[in-house]
Amino acid sequence: MLWLAGCAGGAGGAGGAGGAGGAAPVESGSAASPARSQQFHATELRPGDCIEPLPTTFTVTVVPCDVPHAAEFATIYVLPDGPFPGADMARLMQDGCGPRMRVEGDAIGLWGLGPAKEDWPRHRTVYCLAVPLDGGKTTGRVVK
Question: Looking at the 3D structure of the chain, how many domains does it have?
């Protein structure tokens, strides 16, 4: 199971570090995705990568930011050592991602991709995404 957490409220503060590249991207050109989209594992995201649709796994589709998209990758946050956070996961994602995200606009919230219990403690990274608070799409960049 993959943890997904959406948090209301604008995000601001200091920036963070993005993931590093690895495998070659997979071109995607289906009717449901823009012709210039590519699929990546979340570890390959860089701040400012625009994502459509909102991911439900660690495989994300990166699209040009000039087309409507659901999210923009902002930064990562490594959860602290200890037992799996369980019910505290959403709060930890918000507390960890929020201060590290630098975004433009007040109508931007936070969405986090986090580790599953079966992957804990080997994987503790949360991928922090900037999303429109209204749940819609945005065009252009919001991550500074």
Answer: 1
